[in-house]
Design brief:
Elements: H1 2-20, E1 31-42, E2 48-58, E3 63-70, E4 77-85, E5 90-100, E6 107-113, H2 115-125, E7 130-136, E8 139-145, E9 150-155, E10 160-166, E11 178-180, E12 192-196, H3 205-211, E13 223-228, E14 232-245, E15 258-264, E16 273-285, H4 288-291
Length: about 300
Amino acid sequence: MAGLRSRVVLLSTLALILAAALPPTAGAATIRRTWTASISGVGVPGSPSSGAVQLVRYWAGNGAFSARLTGLLPAARYAVSVYTGTCSRPTLVARLPDLATDANGTAGSTSAVTGAAIAPIWRTAADRSIALRIQAGADVRCAQLTSPVATRVAVPRLGIDLPVVLQRGNAFPWCNVAMYLAPLSQPGEAGVTFLYAHARTGMFLPLLDASRVGGGGRLVGMLVNVWTSDDHLYTYRVTRVLPHRYALPDLGSLTGQQVWLQTSEGPYGTTNKLMVVAQLVSVTAASHAAAHPRARPVACGLYG
């Protein structure tokens, strides 16, 4: 069990350190995460509605909420909340600024959201689905709030190509997939996207093997492809290879979008890790099929 504890402790430490690290160029208005939702359908009063809402969290911890909706009750004030559970039986996460409609039932506004309101949303969204609920009297509309996440990672020159899934809690990392740490950035957001997988055949073993030849120099310049759930392909170029790491280097120098790939170096029971750092070079559209590989994670025990 010592090996399991060491892996869990390191992963938890990485999440805490990276979540607290801000690039020096990140100002108060730098976006940390954007959630969106589409409102459509017919509410209780029978009026068709349509439009979209956006909830933003900035690096500083505060945020903003904007909405462009039609087909709501005229001259009404809608209470807005973020919740988990079901629309009819919601569990409140946080309240957002009210929405006011005009005489035509149209709402269009942008409001500041305090850090106190954003904080529980950020924590909750790390490991479960969140949704938006607006209500004025008997008229209730709900929609899921989503943000893009990494779904696939590939290093073509090494033959690496894996689905990416969320690491939940302190579970031992699965096999046959790579995983991301939810407290960190996703592709398209400022900061670090952190992906990791076991050093096993079919996973990140080729990274480890390449790092052991000439100090890992041949890895520098290789392309890393990361697909996201909103059908985009982010291409990065490897700039640094960091072997034998027991703790993260100084992250104060981070100024742009990066992906970090991590795998264990062994032997079993040790906490030393290989980290490969790559900088964003391009973003392109991707097919839905390419961005949504079928993930088949398996529990693979404590060894390897």
